Amino acid sequence: MELMITPWLAEPGLVHFLIVSALLLSLGLMAVLSRRNVIMVLMGVELILNSANINLIAFSRYTSLSLEGQMIALFVIIIAAAEAAVALAIVLNMYSRFNTVHLDEIDSLKG
Amino acid sequence: MDLTAIVFYLFSIVTVGAAAIMVFSKNIVHSAFALMFSLAGIAVLYVLLYADFIAATQLLVYVGGILILILFGLMLTEQAVTQKFKAVTVNMLPASLLAAVTTVLLVYAYATTSWQMVMPEERSETVYDLGILLMSDYILPFIIAGVLLLIAIVGAILMSTRLTAIKNEEQ
Amino acid sequence: MVQTLKKSWTTFKTIFTGMGVTMRHLLQPSVTLRYPEERDELPSGARSKLFVHIDDCIGCKLCERACPVNCIAIETVQATKDVDLGKTSTGNPKRFWITTFNIDMSKCMYCDMCVPPCPTECISMVPEYEYSEYDRNNLLFQFSELSADKVTEVKEKAEKEQEEKQRKKKEAARKKKAQKADQTSKAKQKNSEG
Amino acid sequence: MALLIFATLPLLLIVGYALFAIWLERKVSAHIQDRLGPMRVGGWHGWAQTIADMLKLIQKEDIIPTNASRFLFKSAPFVLFAASYAAFSVIPFSSAYIGSSINIGVFYLLAVTSLLTLSVIMGAWASNNKWSLLGGMRTAAQMVSYEVPTIMSVLSVLVVAGSLNLMTISEMQTGNDILGFLPNWLIFQNPFLIVAFIIFFISIVAESHRVPFDLPESESELVAGFQTEYSGMRWGIFMLAEYADMLLLSLLGAVLFFGGWASPFGSYLSGPVWGFIWFMLKGLLFVFVMMWMRWTLPRYRVDQLMEICWTILIPVSFINFVLIALWEMTF
């Protein structure tokens, strides 16, 4: 057992990066599900996007995907930037209207 | 263990550890700064994966842009100006269950799949090739992304001007 | 648009004007002095520390009386006849031992009113302004050069002379009285005779 | 081991430069105000004054406010300095020395310097002090805003140079062929680059928060901005990072517009050592101009600062970028 695991640990390859991304994904999921603060949820979403990016770039290095994976990661980053700008504008609006940033207290459809 | 392995383990511990601090921290500003360390660690992982341009973009956009936006959001919603702020958590049990199940499933799937791997290409740079790709195969997504960013900026500005309009009406 | 361009032009022009001014000042020699090593000359008649040429003092106490804050304290003892104290540099004869001549510089307000009355020009303000002290008592300057023994000796002598004088005076007065009494008695005699 | 020595060379340079620059700042300010400045420590014109000050700072007590967030408060100065030191790795100090000649040099530099903003907010928020927080938020707003014209003017240089590697950009500016006598510096190669340089210079003054854009630490209104609660060597590291940042941006300007280590006299007085001297002279000239400006101009208001950036610099830099691209296509 030890003989098998040690060389596997010594040379980080595709699976190592995938495991890191899986951990980040579940942590992001945890943040999205368990926190009430909108901004905290947004941070969880950023973490999930990043874990997806790690996957894409790891694939672009170790498989025949080549640079395409990096390209898609680049677009993910662009979209994340746009998302953050709009989401935070919405959060500020929400705060000025409801005076709270807790998601479960914002339950009326009419402003 | 060679240098790459050491760097990989060091920065994956930093990344995952900082992400864990971010999720479980009581103080939301601590969460935001933990996210900063996590994102910087991810940038180092990108460098290990021979994606230097993406790594720099990650720093510039995530750390220099999005994180500052998030911090501004925190400070402007008056949640974070005091140290005493306590974060509230809900649904702790189902969330942790779901996260654990996701982790186990994903790791199992990753470990058991036989990946179609090729020998890693030794690239000295990616910028040139990325630029060629961006201007040839990916020209349409590139333009659409530009338009999307423009719309996002206009939308964000419009919303924040409406915000001040609402405040003025109230006064 | 034109307005904006004009504004920008004014901005640049004024910035460069200001930078020119500061550059000129950068190159011109500084106006400050490195104080303990270099210092300005004091103007003539600057008021600062008081100094007394005790050899020239005749003990007239004019300065003591002129001082509005009473920072000068002088005590004098008249010299006995057998000693000649000499003359001052201005030619006035000295007649008093100066037993104390204290100036309390912590009281002094630098009004310069003690200097003009001095007949022998022995008190003056010297261009010295660094005499700060840790102890306030060190600001009491004593100019009298007589030692304590000398002072007691002089005092005793003066007292003796005074006594002598008084005794003489008394004697003289008695003599006079006696004479007078003599005269009156003689006159009475004459009257009675006459 | 050799790598370690190689990597610490810029650190020695930065520390030496910071000691010199702080002394120079005091001398320049003194002479502009017709004073003499520090004269006593170390003999000639008080050259050892900053060394003495540094020794004093090291000995001082390191005070951490009771209600501060300890970890963030302690680490903020080091993150700040690490960010600005990391950026030095792509600066070509001479034709023989560059920390890392990577192909995305300028981009990496801009990315790493964006960490500066975050570490300033970190220190500001962790101090739990209203002056610090106000100063930190001002810094963040200012640096994020002025990053846009900086990046636009850098981009317009890259259009002319055609490379992101700072070493390549420096190499292409050697020699003097323009009009027979002018050196091949990029600023002489395209007339619109002069406008780009003016925008770049204004933005780097704002990014390294110097007067007239020193709102983050404006002494008269915010005590000392984000560094209010800092003392001792932590404050010293903030100071060091500020001066390092100033030098970094000045050197970047020297590479992008004034030829980096290229000698102004063609091949005369060139070579690795002379290259280093020319490079430092060019960088220090900008640093000197910043000091000179500090004692000339009054401070802007916050709204004026933002207005200059968003209504003048950014539109002008965009238009200028297009004009430079057109000029490059036609000539």
Protein model, in words:
The complex is a heterotetramer of chains A (111), B (171), C (194) and D (331). Chain A is mostly helical and 111 residues long. Chain A contains four helices and no strands. Chain A has a single domain, classed as Helix Hairpins, CATH 1.10.287. The mean pLDDT of chain A is 82. By secondary structure, chain B is mainly alpha-helical. In chain B, helix 1 packs antiparallel against helix 2 (28-48) and helix 2 runs antiparallel to helix 3 (52-76). The radius of gyration of chain B is 21 Å and the shape is extended. Chain B starts with a helix and ends with a helix. Chain D has two domains: 1-59; 68-330, no CATH class. Chain D contains twelve helices and two strands; from the N terminus they run αααββααααααααα. Chains in contact: A-B, B-D, C-D. Chain B: Its EC number is 7.1.1.-.
Short description:
Chain B: Belongs to the complex I subunit 6 family. The complex is a heterotetramer of chains A (about 110), B (about 170), C (about 190) and D (about 325). With about 170 residues, chain B is mostly helical.
SSE layout:
The complex is a heterotetramer of chains A (111), B (171), C (194) and D (331).
Chain A lengths: L1 H9 L3 H21 L3 H25 L5 H31 L13
Chain C lengths: L1 H26 L21 E4 L9 H5 L5 E7 L17 E9 L18 E4 L13 E3 L5 H46 L1
Antiparallel strand pairs in C: 1-4, 2-3, 3-5
Chain D lengths: L1 H31 L16 H11 L10 H18 L4 E3 L2 E2 L6 H22 L3 H32 L4 H6 L14 H4 L2 H16 L11 H4 L9 H27 L13 H23 L7 H29 L1
Antiparallel strand pairs in D: 1-2
Task: Report how far the terminal alpha carbons of chain C are from each other.
Answer: 139 Å
Arithmetic mean of pLDDT of chain B: 82
Query: Count the strands of chain B?
Result: 0
**Radius of gyration of chain C, Cα only, in angstroms?**
34 Å
Protein chains sharing the most extensive interface: A-B, 74 and 86 residues
Number of helices of chain B: 6
Shape of chain C: rod-shaped
Q: Domain count of chain B, please report it.
A: 2
Keywords:
heterotetramer; B: mainly alpha; Four Helix Bundle (Hemerythrin (Met), subunit A); 6 helices; 76% helix; 0% strand; C: 194 residues; Alpha-Beta Plaits; three-stranded antiparallel β-sheet; 5 strands; 40% helix; rod-shaped; transmembrane helix (chain B); Nuo/plastoQ_OxRdtase_6_NuoJ (chain B); transmembrane (chain B); NADH dehydrogenase (ubiquinone) activity (chain B); quinone (chain B)
